[in-house]
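hey so u asked for the seq, here:
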Amino acid sequence: MKKVVLNCGTPKELEAKRIVEIKSLSYLERLERLMAILEVSYMLKTAQKIQSKK
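ran it, structure tokens below
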């Protein structure tokens, strides 16, 4: 089985790939991604911390 490589490349190459990917999306898809990021950010901000019992 082939090993999966997630982030291969220099930071500039990865940024360029990301920009091309974003530009290929429609306005609605960009808005949906932004809303998902905002929802996750809000959940993380308002979440109660769970303390480990050790």
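The helical segments are 11-24, 27-46. The two ends are 39 Å apart (CA to CA).
lmk if thats what u needed
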